[in-house]
Amino acid sequence: MLYQETAIASSELRLRISDADIAICGPTNVLGIVDRMLAHVPRSWLGEHAPLTINVRYDSSVWSVNGTAPAGHKTLGRLSALPRVAGAVVSSLLAELAHARHFNVWRAAAAERDGRALVLIGDDWESCVTLLAHLHTRGWRILGGDYALVAGDTFVVTAFKKVLHANSSCIDAFPSWYRRAIEASPWYSTPQVIAFYAIDPTLVDAGPPWGEQAPLHAVVRIEGHSAEHPSLEALEDATIARGLRQSDLRRAGVEVASLKLGDFIETCDLLERWFLA
User: Fold this and answer.
1) Could you give the CA distance from residue 66 to residue 50 in angstroms, rounded to a whole number?
2) Residue 33: which residues within 8 A CB-CB, separation 6 or more?
3) How many other C-beta atoms lie within 10 A of the C-beta of residue 221?
4) CA 66, CA 6: separation in Å to the nearest integer?
5) Which of 86, 166, 212, 234 has an alpha carbon 20 to 30 Å from 146's alpha carbon atom?
6) In angstroms, rounded to a whole number, what is the distance separating the alpha carbons of residues 82 and 60?
């Protein structure tokens, strides 16, 4: 599916994340993609606060995405594919949440088990989302496939129920239980290649996929290379996310480690033993 259409009639998409009501106003063809990306995010508003509003506009030269937070302003060229515009809308939405509700937004995959959250970070994004899929088939619940919403004061991770975006290069490493979901997924492309699949984990026959929230128990940084067997190592005091260091997490009782990948099944075995211990 290659999306290059021009903008059409405008509409509004209403969402609720945690206690925040959100209104996204813009062209129907963009909001349709955002709606599919965030299909499992609640739609009903609580009405306790004024909604956070994001406006998407198109003119003859540019797409503009605007919220009230400084980081919520995005500008894209007029030839940008609609999935890219939709991605900018999601990025703006997260900036609004961070600004208005004091979330830290980490580029990370997150899951919970037994009421405790694990966050996977690192530049090797394909491995993060692949590990998340494997953990889901083992009874973990997903809190976020692309982003982790972490409360700045309590380190509680709140679910961001965006469908999993998986690059075509990592699809073959997904667990076999995901095959039906992958085959049913829309895919988005450039003229040269399929860029990513938008995978709905509710189509995986592995129990309820989504968690709601859980206190952060561990952060694992995925190293960008693999070995014959996986290993977990202590992480020197390094920056985990913007303005947050490993020592800050340690003081909050959060375990931090560096993971060298091996076979994904063996890697998940190691992760689970470490986390549950």
Assistant:
1) 17
2) 3, 82, 83, 85, 86
3) 22
4) 19
5) 234
6) 15
Sequence letter at residue 124: D
Q: What is the pLDDT of residues 202-258, one digit of tens each?
A: 999 888 899 999 999 999 999 877 889 999 998 777 777 776 788 888 888 999 999
What sign results for the dihedral spanned by CA atoms 210, 112, 91, 204? negative
Tokens standing for 204? 């995986």
> Residue 262 is encoded by which pair of tokens?
């091996």
In the beta sheet, which residues pair with residue 54? Answer: 24
Q: How far apart are CA 207 and CA 143, in angstroms?
A: 14
Secondary structure (3-state) at 253: coil
Amino acid letter at 185?
S
Q: Which residues contact 172 (CB under 8 A, 6 or more apart)?
A: none
Which structural domains are found in the chain, ordered by start?
Answer: 10-101 (no CATH), 106-276 (3.40.50.300)
Residue 25: other Cβ atoms inside 10 A: 14
Q: What is the rounded distance in angstroms from the CA atom of residue 121 to the CA atom of residue 62?
A: 33
